[in-house]
Amino acid sequence: MPRLKREYDLLLLTAALLVAAAGIFGWRVWSIAHKRVRPDAWTDVQARGRLLVGTDPTFMPFSGYEGDYTGLEPEIMREVARRLGVEIQFFAHGGDGLYEALDVGQVDVLAGQMVIDPQRMGLYRYSMPYYDAGQVLVVPAGTDAVDLASFSDRRVAVELGSEGDGVARRAQAADQLTLVHTDAPSAALDAVAAGAADAAIVDRLSAQEVLRERSGFAILPTPVTSEPYALVTRFSSPELARRLQEALRAMQADGTLETLYRKWLP
Amino acid sequence: MAPMFALSRAAWRHRGRAWQWRCAGAVALVLVLIAPLPTPFVLGAPVPVTTVNPKIGVHTRLTDEVEPRKILQTLRLVHDMGAPWIVEFFPWPYYEPVKGQFDWAGADFIVDAARAEGLEVVARLGAVPDWARPKPEELETNWNYLAEEHFPDYADFVGAFVTHFKGRVHYVILWNEPNLTREWGFRPVDPEGYVHLLSLAYPRAKAADPEVQVLAGALAPTLEPEGSQWGLNDLLFLERLYAAGFADYYDILAVHSYGLALPADDPPAPERINYRRAELARESMVRHGESDKPIMITETGWNDQPRWIHGVRPAQRVAYTLAAYRMAQEQWPWCRMTAMWAFKYPAPFHNYMDNYAFVSADLVPRVIYEEVRDYSQGIAR
User: Fold this and answer.
1) Among A54, B223, B243, B312, which is least packed by CB within 10 angstroms?
2) Fold for the domain defined by A41-132+228-264
3) Which of A71-80, A245-254, B87-96, B300-309 is predicted with the least confidence, judged by mean pLDDT?
C-alpha cells in the first residue's frame, strides 16, 4: 500500500504538472490570438485619402523646406502618392524624432534619409533603397584598382575628422595606408589631382559633385561603406509597405527615379 | 554515476517524504553552486579628473548600454578626456516597472562607476512607464506622455531616486525639453503644467536630500511661435514659467544652447539660435530676481555632418567646441558646467545624429575627442 500510495502521489503530481503546462500553453496561444494588432496603415491611408509622410527637411538636396517641402525625397513621395491615388501631407521632424512619429501613428511612412538598420527590422519595414550615401573611393580615371585594399602602401586623402577619415584610420593598420588629411572633401580630391594622394575617400554626393564639374576622376564601383536610404513603415503595415515598394519599383522601371536623381543630385 | 543513481532511486522509494525534500534541497543547492557567477567589476577609489577646465562636461547615454565593460570603458574615456561632469538620462520606466517596485541595479552600476572615475553625475529624470500611460488600444502615446493624474507618480519616483542616491548623485534634472510637443508626449506644450509638475516633484527631491541640487527648464532652443504644433520658443516658454511660479521649484537653471552652424562667439539675439543664447536665459533669470542661482548647460554642441543644414565641417566643430568650453570658464561665472551632446550612443542612429558623438558606438575616439583631451591637458596646438 505505501508504495501504491507513493505512485499514486507521483501520478497526481505528474497530472497536475501536465494541467499546469497545458494551461500556460493555452494562455500563451490565447494572448497571441487576442493580441491587439495595429491595423495596416494602408487602411488608414485609404480611409482618409491621404498619405502622411515624416521627413527631416534640413538635409538638402534630399529634403528641405522653402515655403513647401522640396528636394529628392518629397518629390519621390509626391510621385508615390500620385501612383497610389491619394493626397500627401508632410510632417517635419529632426533625425531623433522620426521613428517616434511613426510609432505613435502621426505619420504612415518615413522618407528622411532613413538608413536601413538591421537592428530595427523587427519593428519596421524598409523599402528598396533609393540612394546609397556611403563613402566611396575617388581615383584618377583609368586607375587599376578595385577597392580600398588595392591602395595598400599608398596615399589616401580624407577630410580630417570626417566619416571617410574614420574608415581610413581603421583600415590604416591593415592596409598600410598613408593618410593625407585635408580640410574639405573637395580639397581631398584636389590632393588626388595634384598627385599628392593616390585616391580620396569621400561621401558619394561629394564625389558626384566634383565629377560633375571636373573630369579625370572616377568613382570605384565597390563602395567603402554603405548607407542605403529607404522608405520606412511600421512592421504592422505590410500592405502599405508592399504598395510603396511597388510604386518605387515602377518608378525605377519607367525612369522616373532617374529623372528625379538628375534633377536633385549632381 | 549509475550506482549513485540507483542509490538515489532506492532512497526515493524507501525513505519518507522528509528524505525526498532533503534530496530536492540538495539538488537545488548543487544547481545554485554550479550556476555561473556574474563577473565582478571591482571599482576602485575615485580618481580625480585632471583638467585645465573644470566646467567641461559631456552628455553620456549609458543607461541603454548593454555591456558593463562598455560602460566602464566609456567612463574611462570621459575621465581621460578631462571632463569632470557627465549628464546621464535615467528613464523612469527602467527603474520603476511596476508602481512602487524599484530596481536600481543598472543605475547603481553607472553611478558608482562614474564616481570611481572621479566624475560628477547630473541625473536627468524623465520618460514614463507603461503603467502610467494610457493603454495603447485607447491612445497611442510616446514615452514622454505624462497625464496630470500621474504627476504625483513622477514625484514619487523623483523622491525615490534622490533617496536611493543620496550622497552619490548631487544633481537631478526634472524632465527634458518640455517646450517641444514631442517631449511633452506629442501634446501642446504647457508651461503652467510643467510648473505644476515641478511643484510636486521639487519638494519630494528636497525632502529626500536637502543637499541635492534640482535642475529644471532644460528647454530646447527653438523659435517656434505660440500655437505652433512643434513647440514654443524657449525664451517665451521661460517667461511663462516664471509667471507661473517657476522660481520656487528649481535650484539651477538647465539650459540647452546648441551652436548649430554658428561659431561659439556668435552674438546672442532673441531671433538667433546659437551657443550664446544661454546669455539670454541668464538675462531672463536676472530680470526675475534669480541672479543668485547658477546655470548649467546640460546640452550643447556642434554637428560635423556638413550636409545637414545645421552642420559644420569637422575642423570647425573642433574650433567651436573648444571656444565654447573656454567661454564657459573664462566669461560666464554664472555657468557651472557645459555638457556637449553626446559623448557616445549605445548604437548608431545611422543618420546625422551620429555626427554629434565624440566616440563611435564601438568606442573609437573621433578627432573631436582627441582635440578636447589635448585642450584639457594643456597641450597647445
Assistant:
1) B243
2) D-Maltodextrin-Binding Protein; domain 2 (3.40.190)
3) B300-309
> Is the Cβ–Cβ distance between B84 and B119 less than 8 Å?
yes
Q: Which of A23-32, A112-121, B162-171, B333-342 has the lowest mean pLDDT?
A: A23-32
Cis peptide before A230 (omega within 30 of 0): no
State residue B268 phi and psi, 5-degree precision: -75, 145
A56 contacts in chain B (CB < 8 Å): 351
Does the pLDDT value for residue B251 go beyond 60?
yes
Contacts of B351 in chain A (CB under 8 A): 56, 95, 113-115
Q: What is the mean pLDDT of residues B188-199?
A: 98
Q: How far does the CA of residue B308 sit from the closest CA of chain A (Å)? A: 5
Q: Does A160 touch chain B (CB under 8 A)?
A: yes
Sequence-distant (6+) residues with CB within 8 A of A231 are: A80, A109, A110, A111, A114, A126, A127, A130, A244, A248
CA distance A95 to chain B (A): 6
Distance of alpha carbon B8 from alpha carbon B209, whole angstroms:
58
Say what the pLDDT of residue A99 is.
95
| A151-178 burial code (b ≥16 CB/10 A, e <16) | beeebbbbbbbbbbbbbbeebeeebebe
Q: What is the pLDDT of residue B106?
A: 96
Burial of B170 (0-12, 13-18, 19+ CB in 10 A): middle
Contact A115 B313 (CB under 8 A): no
pLDDT tens track for A167-196 = 888 888 777 889 999 988 889 999 999 999
Q: Do A115 and B350 lie within an 8 Å CB cutoff?
A: yes
A35 band by pLDDT with thresholds 50, 70 and 90: low
Least confident span in A161-175, B65-79, B356-370: A161-175
Residues A229-256, mean pLDDT to the nearest whole number? 97
- Cβ distance A159 to B367 less than 8 Å, yes or no, reads no
- Any idea which architecture A135-219 has in CATH? 3-Layer(aba) Sandwich (3.40)
Query: For residue A105, what is the nearest residue in chain B, using CA coordinates?
Result: B140
Q: Does B346 touch chain A (CB under 8 A)?
A: no
CB contact under 8 A, B351 and A113: yes
Of A92, A115, A161, the CB nearest to B318: A161
Residue A150, pLDDT score: 84
Identify whether the C-beta of residue A233 lies closer than 8 Å to the C-beta of residue A124: yes
Joined grid coordinates for residue B275: 551657443
- What is the distance in angstroms between the Cα of B291 and the nearest Cα belonging to chain A? 34
**Predicted TM-score (pTM) of this structure:** 0.82
Looking at residue B319, what DSSP letter applies?
H
Spell out which residues of chain B touch residue A117, defining contact as CB-CB under 8 Å.
350
Q: Which amino acid is at A118?
A: P
CATH superfamily, with its number, for domain B56-376: Glycosidases (3.20.20.80)
Residue-level pLDDT at A80: 98
* Residue of A260 and A211 predicted with greater confidence: A260
